[in-house]
Amino acid sequence: MKKILFLFLTLAILSCKKSEKKETKEEVVVVKPTIKLFPLVGGSIFVKKLEAFSQDTTYTGQTKQFTDAYYVISHPKGNLMWDAGLPENLVIPEPFHEPSGVFAIQRPDSLTNQLKKIGFKTEDIKYIALSHSHFDHTGHANSLKNATWLVQENEYNAEVGDSVKTKNPALKDLIKVKKLNGDYDVFGDETVVIKYMPGHTVGHQVLYLDLGLEKPILLTGDLYHFEENRTSRGVPSFNYDVAQTLKSMEEFEAFAKEKNAEVIIQHSPKDFKKLQNLLKN
Ligand SMILES: [Zn+2]
Known about the structure:
Blueprint lengths: L1 H23 L11 E12 L16 E12 L2 E5 L13 E2 L5 E4 L4 H7 L7 E5 L18 E5 H7 L17 E4 L3 E2 L6 E5 L8 E5 L7 E3 L7 H6 L9 H18 L2 E3 L4 H12 L1
Parallel strand pairs: 3-6, 6-7, 7-8, 12-13
Antiparallel strand pairs: 1-2, 1-5, 2-3, 4-5, 9-10, 10-11, 11-12
Bound molecules: zinc ion.
């Protein structure tokens, strides 16, 4: 009898617990997807004439070491590559001094080898998005011909559009194209968002990443090339529209503040290390 009573009580408690659960069932539980970010080095750029990164003579006589980062973002709905480093023919033992006399450039390794080190193959990349179409961001883009290229429509038209006389050869094999007009939430869950920040080029964009870390991350593209550019709002000499660039900088800073984001300047070796440390924790 005692046993039966005990069983009855246990069942009563269990059913009570069950109904409690039922009541909370309606609550929306937000399960954040697991997103991983892999920063990779797509090149080394030694700037021999830093004045190229100003509209005036501020940096005349100065030099600076840049890195040239690109990134793989692994999301349950697919992998995105952000930027594409320097061309692979720059995987050479000594830096190449290009004809303008501004840069000495070199790439440490091929895309295939670099992806292999983080457990990926080129076929694993579902989307490719470039901050913009300059040569130090389009390097290995053609190797990702099966990926869908996420590009602002105006940038696309300027680089490979029907009316363009000389199409950008670095992008010619990107056949699958999704043309964007403004910001774009890549996976539809606000974790990986392309932000339209034009000016450096006609369709320049930056990348917002919510990896579930203490702070979200904002990759600058070439809105800024180095730290002083950000504090002094420096615009390089090679730039599509100065006023538009300055407006984008304002919007970028307001957005970074709103999101309390960690800003990573992609060409900054210091920021590359900072990002690596953030990802370790
Ligand atoms: Zn660049």
